[in-house]
Write a structure and sequence with these properties.
The complex is a heterodimer of chains A (about 260) and B (about 260). Chain A is mainly α and about 260 residues long. Chain A has one domain (about 45-255): MetI-like fold (Orthogonal Bundle), CATH 1.10.3720. Chain A has 11 helices and no strands. Chain B is α/β, with parallel strands linked by helices and about 260 residues long. Chain B has a domain at about 10-85 and about 155-235: P-loop containing nucleotide triphosphate hydrolases (Rossmann fold, 3-Layer(aba) Sandwich), CATH 3.40.50.300. Chain B has helices at about 45-55, 95-105, 110-120, 140-150, 170-185, 195-200, 235-250, and strands spanning about 10-15, 20-30, 35-40, 60-65, 80, 155-160, 190, 205-210, 215-220. The two termini of chain B are about 35 Å apart. The chains are: A mainly alpha (about 260), B alpha/beta (about 260). The structure holds adenosine-5'-diphosphate and magnesium ion. Magnesium ion binds near residues 47, 48 and 160 of chain B.
Chain lengths: ~260, ~260
């Protein structure tokens, strides 16, 4: 592992190289095509110029992403508990869960807008749909792949079903749950954006980042479009970082404690 | 004739899984309270299955098996099991792991703590209560597993190759400690092992099983007096018996016996 100083310095260096490359590409581009790759400072200016608008859009998208994500987490935990108790249910439902995952959200989004109405509601539902599958599959997997010997140990000491679930299966499933959570965290802002792209326009409160992207692109405001993309990246980063912090905290007993093999 | 009220009694027991062949056949055997029975035999001859029958984890297919005079299913409270792997819950501390069986049985916290202190003192881990399993060596993890079994103060202790994964020095030390603990807590033991030396050192009865299906091939009495110490391994009586049992084991499993 590189030393702490290197862990900060190296990414900074990469960033500097990346920016140099950016300016370099702009420099060799024909001037009439440079609008395709606005200079970073132009993007910064667009960010400031459209500040209130973008802030509102960010807030709307974040709200939809968060609600859909939390809804998916809640529903998937209960669904996984149900699925883990019955192999029959798993066999019956897995193909349809699979189809849910393979379903192209962009195509289904307009239908959902018809069903649940535009704005936050459909953004939340679409985010939910895109996050649900990795969560339910990973958590179920975790609940059913408990170490056979540990299950036997619990049987031996005549543990009740509830004790086995609470003291063994659920804690053993935590690492799987957090794997699902990390995947869902990367998907939630994307889901919200896709939802917003389709359904945000008529939200009444001005829509989110997806809707803003449509507007900037139709108005040929390319630096503002790049600024929107940057904010989206930032939002995804916040989601993933949040889950990583949470999972490091929750899984500390698995991974974090210092080694004390000192006998 | 066996004396009355054995703690474990097999009568003409056979065991198979589903429509499969017999895994165990013609098992008739009685263990008296205080016996230390070592089971040794080729891999796959049904030693673990035999322990699982006693533990009530799996029913016999033929014959009868009683534990403390009852059906094994009903006798679960009398026994504890130590598996080959330490089978500790990685997210619980040593204390949490050791208290687990009593927690499952609804024993109040104060009594659990007291039992845990006693058990960890016996296994020499009194100062490791707050450690997580992964912070312990393999030998220490097995000690925790043993302590967990001892908290129940069982009448019957079943051990399935508990020290098989440890290096020889650690294993010998743990064998000595196991006998020292037994001097303080009088349980009956069934101990499965691959090591003749370990079997002779620990047990007063060594049972050799043959394979396909598993049967009792021969039983050896170990007349060495307890307490046994590291020096016991140096006595001619011990070494002679190790040689005799190793020969017998080779005759039931020509290829499968490790040197
Ligand atoms: N649950 C089970 N279902 C089917 N066969 C089993 C089961 N458990 C053990 N066996 C079979 O019983 C035989 C004895 O296994 P085991 O008792 O583990 O042997 P040992 O502990 O002596 O190595 C093996 O052939 C094994 O495949
Ligand atoms: Mg075995």
């Amino acid at each position: 592992m590189p030393r702490p100083a290197a862990k900060i310095l190296l990414p900074v260096l990469t960033g500097v190289l990346f920016l140099s490359l950016w300016y370099g590409v702009r420099a060799v581009m024909p001037p009439d095509l440079r609008f395709l790759l606005p200079a970073p400072e132009a993007i910064g200016r667009a960010l400031l110029a459209n500040g209130p608008e973008l802030a509102r859009a960010t807030l709307n998208t974040t709200e939809g992403a968060t609600l859909g994500f939390l809804l998916a987490v809640t529903v998937s935990v209960f669904a996984a508990l149900g699925l883990s108790l019955s192999p029959l249910m798993r066999v019956s439902l897995y193909p349809y869960l699979m189809m849910l995952q393979l379903m192209p959200v962009v195509v289904v989004a307009p239908i959902l807008v018809l069903w649940v109405g535009p704005g936050l509601k459909s953004v939340t539902v679409i985010t939910f749909l895109i996050c649900f599958f990795p969560l339910v599959v990973n958590t179920t997997q975790g609940l059913v792949s408990t170490d056979r010997q540990l299950v036997e140990l619990f049987r031996l000491y005549r543990a009740r079903r509830g004790q086995e679930l609470r003291l063994l299966r659920i804690p053993a499933a935590l690492p799987y749950f957090f794997t699902g959570l990390r995947i869902a965290a990367t998907l939630a802002p994307i889901g919200a954006l896709v939802g917003d792209y389709t359904a945000g326009s008529s939200a009444g409160n001005g829509g989110g980042l997806g809707f803003q992207a449509i507007i900037y692109s139709s108005q040929a405001k390319y630096p503002a479009l790049f600024a929107t993309a940057a904010i989206t990246c930032g939002l995804g980063f916040v989601f993933v970082a949040g889950v990583l912090v949470l999972s490091r905290f929750a899984l500390a007993r698995w991974h974090e404690a210092p080694d004390r093999k000192d006998n | 004739m066996p004396p009355p009220s054995p703690i474990v009694e097999f009568r003409e027991v056979a065991k198979r899984f589903g429509d499969g062949p017999d895994v165990l056949a013609d098992i008739s055997f009685a263990a008296q309270p205080g016996d230390f029975v070592a089971l040794i035999g080729p891999s796959g001859c049904g030693k673990s299955t035999l322990l699982r029958l006693i533990a009530g984890l799996s029913p016999v297919s033929e014959g009868t098996l009683t534990v403390a005079g009852r059906d094994p299913e009903q006798a679960a409270a009398e026994l504890a099991f130590v598996f080959q792997d330490a089978t500790l819950l990685p997210w619980l501390t040593v204390a949490g792991n050791v208290e687990l069986p009593q927690r499952l049985r609804g024993v109040p916290a104060a009594a659990r703590t007291a039992a845990r202190h006693r058990a960890l003192a016996l296994t020499g881990l009194a100062d490791r209560s707050d450690y997580l399993p992964r912070q312990l060596s393999g030998g220490q993890q097995m000690r925790v597993s043993l302590a967990r079994a001892l908290t129940l103060e069982p009448k019957l202790l079943l051990l399935d190759e508990p020290f098989g994964a440890l290096d020889e020095m650690t294993r010998e030390r743990l064998n000595e400690e196991l006998l020292a603990i037994r001097a303080q807590q009088a349980w009956t033991a069934f101990f499965v092992t691959h090591s003749v030396a370990e079997a002779v050192f620990l047990a007063n009865r060594v049972v050799v099983l043959s394979a396909g299906p598993g049967r009792l091939a021969e039983e050896f009495a170990v007349p060495l007096p307890y307490p046994r110490t590291a020096d016991t391994r140096l006595t001619p009586a011990y070494q002679e018996l190790v040689v005799r049992i190793s020969r017998r084991l080779r005759s039931v499993a020509p290829a499968a016996v490790p040197a």
